[in-house]
Amino acid sequence: MTHILQPQSRALSRRSFLVTVGGLGIAVAFGRPPGLAYGADIAPSAQGDFRPNAWVTIAADGTVSIISPAVEMGQGITTTLPLLVAEELDADWNRVRVVQAPSDAETYGNPGFYGIQLTGGSESTRGYNALLRLTGAQTRLVLLAGAAGMLNVPVKELETEPHKVVHPPSGRSLDYGEIAARAVLPDPLPQATEADLKPSDRWRYIGSRTILRIDVPSKINGTAVFGIDVQLPNMLFGAVLRAPVQDERPETIDDAEARDVPGITHIVALPYGVGIIGETVEATKRAKDLLKVTWSTTSRVRNYTSQRLLDEYRAVGRDLSQQGVPAHTNGDAEAAIAGATTVIEVDYMSDHVAHATMEPMNATALVTGDRVEIWAPTQGPTGTQGFAAEIVGTTPDKVKVNTTLLGGGFGRKAEADFIVDAVSLAKAVEGRPVKVIWSREDDVRHDTFRPLEAQHVKVGLDAEGNIVGWRHRIVADSIFARTLPPVFAEAGGHDDVVTEGAKFNYAVPAHQIEYLRQDKGLAIGFWFAVGVGYTRFAIECVIDEIAAARGIDPAALRLELLKDQPRARKVIETVARMAEWDRARDGRGLGLAYSDAFGSHCAQVAEVSLNRDTGQIRVHKVWCAIDAGVAIQPLHIEAMMMTGITNGTGHALFEQINVVNGEVQESNFDTYRVIRMSEAPEIEVAVVPTPGSPFGGIGQAGLPPAGPAIANAVARLTGGLRLRHYPFTPERVKAALEA
């Protein structure tokens, strides 16, 4: 699901402005108080704040409060988005205060996500940038109009400098705080269009390497408030015992011993488990361990064994008589392949992986009559409101969501199961807040994993080695069928998150992508770079296989296939220079991979070594070149690439969830293997922006090339060993070496 939002030339009225792109409309109310966000009171001061719109409030002392509509989960978005407003407003960044948006999709919804409040998909900057830049420009025009009245001069004679309006003919100036204290909102409000946006040569903040993330200091000094940190008066704690197999329910509950644990106040039967409420976390944990529950045995997930199903998925992909849902069609690839001189036909597979966020699932809820208040590290305030309202039997407008910092999200905290826990238990003790904290074992066993999937790729080459046809079949369950059924139905049974990344910008005359859904009952969900993480694995490895078949350099082949893509060529050429691509390494191999996912171009080279006796792969260094179009915060882009590469290396080498008869076998970091600090590669990043290009997403752009770059490096190091199954465990690598 990728929408690159471009601003339209459209006037802003006094009460609202509308940006319409690709059929999406965003109405933003002006003159409306933004309300209160958890931990950040922006109520009017005694002198009265200047509030020209729902996004910006200016106090008499000159403090500018800017709403951040996206949630902060370590990706730095609470700096990036307000910075866009501050740039067009000509505000002094040192006098800006950022405030987390309240739960109000009508005002703060993301155009990239159908107007709801949801953070993910590398969609925040792409979704909000036009809206926020126009908001900043509109606010600047309002200040100019106010200053014109105060100075009794024509507005056309005024200019702005950081945080003040100046009148060059007289040398007079007014601080934004002075205007806020004395000016009256003009009626009608001045209008802003795309023409009022600053040209890039006047940007003070966009592209600067001096702007630091605003969330980091509090995380260093310990004052940051994550969901797990929330403390409220008279608060109780909750835990939930879930069935070992998804969709089972408790049939009998023996809670005698659990109720005897000191501090336990309530045991609550839930449709999906048993809730425990108590005075301390320790008491709820002890009581949970003492519950004796007989579970139902009717869930079809009991038939789910991941390794067996993966074999089935691979067979489905190979069986070309089974038609899939078309995801992309450019010519008749199968017909083109039928006339090819050489055919490459391979399978690529990926196991389930868990999110394993640093902060496990948690939420705090207070139910008072038909009112609900929630404090949670959620990626989706709109969904949180809806689920909470359904549980209590009220309406979403009576649910207030206070979004805290997230200790990692990766798509997991877009789910609502942990919200349902907290609201369900709070409903049982109406009037007292209840905080639910999942154990790490619950977090791993009851995750919504990245889909199990198999891909069948069939490519035809002519006598000169040119690609004539490319057919790509993706076999997996659907995320949208569970989370957004109307979207899934409207797409005719296609899930574009599961297949995302399969459509590439390589010059191929006939290219077909098919999606073959396998509905096996296990809930799967959004994960870091979801589909792109495995579709690019297959594509980039196949590109290397084609290069080997033709006997040419893999970098040269990519440049040939991208001859009309200057931005793509630039990152490949840049990263090749950085890594000294043509220089031989003793005992080490280099591998290259490229991705254009999320509107950004990213190329990586991985340097690896291989212990042939154990099958252990070691990634020593990764070079990365990234072009996200306009680079709003280059330092931040570098950091996000490091995050993506580290995660990409971990999921390629280690991460694996195994389900046997519906039960997840892993439970904590002793069994669910993630990358260690000692295993993280050295990383070197070059940000190579393209001025004038659209804003690209960077939150997930660094992950997709990492795995295939490692696989391609192993192939070059070993003379052709192709690793086609994530993760590359030592056992799998050794078996491939011995095959």
From TrEMBL:
- Provide a Gene Ontology MF annotation, just one: isoquinoline 1-oxidoreductase activity
Q: Which InterPro entries match?
A: Ald_Oxase/Xan_DH_a/b, AldOxase/xan_DH_MoCoBD1, AldOxase/xan_DH_MoCoBD2, AldOxase/xan_DH_Mopterin-bd_sf, N-heterocyclic_Hydroxylase, OxRdtase_Mopterin-bd_su_IorB, TAT_signal
Residues in coiled coil: none
- Which EC class, in a word? oxidoreductase
EC assignment: the record states: 1.3.99.16
Domain Aldehyde oxidase/xanthine dehydrogenase a/b hammerhead residue range list:
221-299
**Gene3D superfamilies to which the protein is assigned, alphabetical:** Aldehyde oxidase/xanthine dehydrogenase, a/b hammerhead, Aldehyde oxidase/xanthine dehydrogenase, molybdopterin binding domain
* Keywords associated with the record: Oxidoreductase
According to UniProt, the name of this protein is Isoquinoline 1-oxidoreductase beta subunit
